[in-house]
Every structure is written in C-alpha cells, then in structure tokens.
Amino acid sequence: MPVRFNLLYFTEGTGQYLEEVIRGFPQGMVSQVRQLPSSLAGDRNPLPVETPADIWLMEYREDVAGLDQRIEEVQQQADQPAIFLYLQQADTQTLLKALRLGVQECFIGQIKEEEFQQAIQRLQKARKGLKNGEKTKVVTVQGCKGGVGVSFLAVNLAQSLAARIADPVLLLDLDLHNSDIGSLLDIPPRYTILDVIENFDRLDPQYLQDIIHSRDSGLAVLPGPLRPEDRELVRASAVENVLQYVRGQNLYRWLILDLGDVLDEVTLKAVEEADLMILVVQLTVPSLRDAKKILETFQLLEIDPGKIKVVANGYSSAVSIDPKEAEKFLGQPIMAALRFDHEAVIRSFNEGQPLVELLPGHKLSNEISQLVQILFPHDNDNGHRPGRWLKLKTLLRLRGAA
After folding, report:
1. In angstroms, rounded to a whole number, what is the distance separating the alpha carbons of residues 188 and 11?
2. Per-residue pLDDT averaged across 79-102, rounded?
3. 3-class SS at 146?
4. Which of 119, 97, 104 shows the shortest CA–CA distance to 21?
5. Structural domains of the chain, with CATH
6. Distance of CA 43 to CAs 56, 66, 67, 101, 253, Å?
7. Cα gap 241→74, rounded to integer Å
8. Which of 116, 147, 266, 375 has the highest count of CB atoms within 10 angstroms of its CB?
C-alpha cells in the first residue's frame, strides 16, 4: 500500500534531498511539495497544505517564527498526519523540544535508507494496534522472596512470547527495589516508567512508543527508575493510571510486569490489574514457606486462584524438594520446574541478552519455551510465525551516541 507524503521545506537544496529520500522508499508517493515562507507567525500564514497525506516530511528550523505553533495545530486535528522532522544539525535540547511538539520522528543530517524505512514501519505498527475485539492482557511475575530469579524469568518469558506471536509484547519493570531489567537487556539508560508518569497528562500512543525501548527481536521494554530516590515517585495511583492507559490503547497484546519480590501498595495495584499471575519459587523449605504466605494473602484478597500459576526456578533433582511434595504443601500445582544452570544464566546476564535468545538450543531455554506454550496456549503461532522486526530506535537519534 502506498505511503503518501507531503514535503515541506525552506531551502531548495533540502527540498530536493528530502524528495529523493521519499522516492527511494519503494511505497513512497509524493502527494504535494511546498516551499515554506520565512515566517509562519500570525493567522494569515497557515501551513500551505491542501492534499491529504499519511506523513508530512518537514524541514525544521528553530529561527522560523510560528513554526512550532503550526506543528501543534496539525497535531490537534482529528485525522492528523504523522510529522517527520528533518534537521541539518541539532542538540539534545532541540530534539526534546521536537518530542514535546508531538512529532513522530526526527532525522538529523544524512538519512539512511534503512533508518527511514524503520521509521515508517514503526508508525504503521503504532497506528494499527490490535485486531478488533482483542484486548491487552496483563501478566505479573512475582517472587516469593529475593534471589528466586524473577527478573530472569520475566525477561525470558517476555522474549519467548514476543518471538512466537505477531502482536507486540511490552515488558515493564515494576521492581522498584531492584530495577534490573535495563541491565539484563543492556538497554541504554534513557527513559523509564518515571518519564511516562511525569508526562501522563499529555500522554498519547505515539509518545508512549517513542520512549519505550524496542529490541531487535521485537520485544518492547520500559525499564524501572534508575535512581533510588526516583523510586519513591512511583506511586500506586500513578501505576494504576499507566496500566489502565496502556490497556485502553490496545497497543500491546501482552503486558508483562516484573514485580520483584515485595508485596506493597504498588505491586498490589498491579496484581489487581492482572489477568495472569506467575509466582516464582524455589523448591527449598524457606522459599516454599514464603510462597504459602503469599498465596494465603492472595486468598484473603479474594484473588481468583485460577489465574495464579506457580513456577519453580533453579531446580536440581539432587537437592531440591520434590515438585509433587511442594504441590501438596502449597495446595497449588507447579506449572514447571526450571533447571538450575548457574553458568548459562550468568552468561546471559553478562552479555545483556535473554537466555532464550542467546542460547536458543539450551535445555533451560527449551524449558522456558515449553512453559510459554502452557501459559499462553491461545497465543502460540496463531497459524503463522512473524518475521524478525527491524531494529527500532528511539526519537532522540544523536549522531555518534553509544
């Protein structure tokens, strides 16, 4: 399907260059080309565009009076086009300013063909959403105590699920005491859930997807707060707002929440939103005792026991309690007993990759994949396998940045 572009520029050379970029995109179609005046201030100088388009590719100059106001006006239209800005050069403050204007993409200097195609694919995916009738479902991953491998399991479950289904999966780090998701996936420390909370009043689907990190594999990730003092700003009410917003937009098929190992006001609010709850245990006496206390708490909260799934991590047949005996003690079936392999797990940590991606043929990876098939029986393959999504970059593309 053709992608219609309106091209708006100030200088002839830039206009010619951007037109070449559009025509280099196989589905690109130039609907209109306009050279903009040196000032757009005042009601007499609206953006001179008459032809409908999917995307406006626009040269951006900070010295043009009224340009920011015109961009904001376009963003407020009922059926507004996406806006891609082009800048000869820019600093971080200029790009943050563009982000606040609500534009979808910024390009600086030479535009690489692959980068341009990825931006269009990202836009198409953001506007597509889920199929009619489908709803975002929330999965919580919580440990009965520290050290049972909650973040490891959350990362690998989310990655395995994202590789199996065509619809997008978002992994959200709500372990406010040990926000490790960003480190485990080697994600640059740029945006976190705190950015979503602080900008919630002007949140829209495109802004949300701009600040969420998307991995090569297609898994979307929103890390937890980076600094200990920031974690106090993540309140239960704010988390509730964010979760309900993401669910309401239907941008993701599954929302996987890493809750860590603490039951507090924030994690209980997440539990209230959950469609599926995974309780991670180890088959040891202390771990099972703590797990039983948590299950009793869930019972007091009148949580449907049918949506609680117990998963044993770090299992060793030589020293661990037998899963059948553990089931009797907990009064709850154990969905899987994932093997203990310290070397493989540490390697995945150090290389910043999920084990299922780093070592897909490993026995532990296979066990995790089988667990995904059990936990998400209606989301396995769906008759097709998606291709690997192109690497998505965030809005702030600073040349030479690590």
Report:
1. 35
2. 79
3. coil
4. 119
5. 3-128 (3.40.50.2300), 137-379 (3.40.50.300)
6. 21, 10, 12, 19, 43
7. 27
8. 266
- The model's pTM: 0.69
Token pair 């297609």 in the structure block, residue: 218
Q: How far apart are CA 337 and CA 322, in angstroms?
A: 10
Percent of the chain with pLDDT over 70: 87
Residue (of 222, 167, 169, 168) closest to 197 by Cα position: 222
Q: What are the CB-based long-range contacts (under 8 Å, 24+) for 69-77?
A: 69/40, 69/41, 70/40, 70/46, 71/101, 71/102, 71/103, 72/101, 72/102, 73/46, 74/47, 75/101, 75/102, 75/103
User: What pLDDT, in 10s, does the model give residues 5-60?
Assistant: 999 999 999 999 999 999 998 888 898 899 998 888 775 556 666 678 889 999 99
Rg of the chain in Å (alpha carbons)? 24
> In sequence order, what are the beta bridge partners of 59?
86
pLDDT tier, 127 (very low <50, low <70, confident <90, very high otherwise): low
Query: What Cα–Cα distance (Å) separates residue 325 from each residue in 7, 190, 329?
Result: 68, 45, 6
Could you give the CA distance from residue 352 to residue 186 in angstroms, rounded to a whole number? 5
pLDDT at position 258: 98
- Quick one: angle between helices 363-375 and 150-164, nearest 10? 70
Q: Does residue 211 surpass a pLDDT of 90?
A: no
Position 388 confidence tier, pLDDT thresholds 50, 70, 90: very low
Q: Over the stretch 269-281, which tens digit does the pLDDT of each residue have?
A: 999 999 999 999 9
| Neighbour-count burial for 259-274, b at 16+ CB within 10 Å, e otherwise | bbbebeebbebbbebb
Query: Is the pLDDT higher at 296 or at 131?
Result: 296
Report the C-alpha gap between 45 and 254 in whole angstroms: 45
Structure-model confidence comparison of residues 199 and 342, the more confident one: 342
Amino acid at 103: V
104's tokens: 């979808």
Nearest to 195 by CA among 207, 182, 205: 207
The three-class DSSP label of residue 272 is helix
What distance in Å separates the CA atoms of residue 228 and residue 315, rounded to the nearest whole number? 32
